[in-house]
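User: Can you predict the 3D structure for this chain?
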Amino acid sequence: MDVIPAIDLHGGKCVRLHQGDYSRETVFDVDPLAVLRRFEAAGATRVNVVDLDGARDGIRSNAGVVADMAATATIPLQISGGIRDAETAAALVKDGVARVVFGTAAVEAPDEVESAIGELGTERVVVGIDARDGVVATRGWMAASDVRVLDMVRKMADMGVSRIQYTDINRDATMAHPNFEAAAELLDNTTCRILIAGGISSIEDLLRLKELGVDGAVLGQAIYTGAIDLAEAVSTIKAHS
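Assistant: Here is the predicted structure, written as structure tokens:
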């Protein structure tokens, strides 16, 4: 299982939002590149970068920061937020991004996801399913769809998607532990590899996710507040491989 630290970008800064609420923002660093360097030094093998402005507005206003990160990173980057079409996804991969994550587009324009898979291959494309009470949310979690999580997973799998990143919005940045029940349900109902985000607060949480068979765990609040030491988390999970 990959231990994947997150860098959430808002206005060019590294921030965290409480349960996706843009009015409840904490700025953790004004230099996302410095944060990336720290994660690399701690032994992370991949970093999840979210353009929060792009996710909400569909305009990738942090594109310059993302490009700088992709140009200098020594580990693979997974990028999400504002990726609404296959053309944007392909451009990011060309710039050095390892994986692109479709969220809103997977609900509103699934043909773009299918096109991206056809052009880039299934290993480059992730679908992010952000859910509140079992219903998929879109546009930076500001809008609710009428799509249930498992229905979405099955549809994406039928299109050739091989990796799903699931975020429980109600737990995001709460340190209230991940939604283990949802993770188990996803693993029981699809052959897609599953990444889990939201609520992870301890190395014990990571070990439990690994035991379930999760492919990757995305860490945010816990590492920024010091509840989890990233280097220790990486080494512990590696030791249990």
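The mean pLDDT is 96. The first strand starts at residue 2 and ends at 10.
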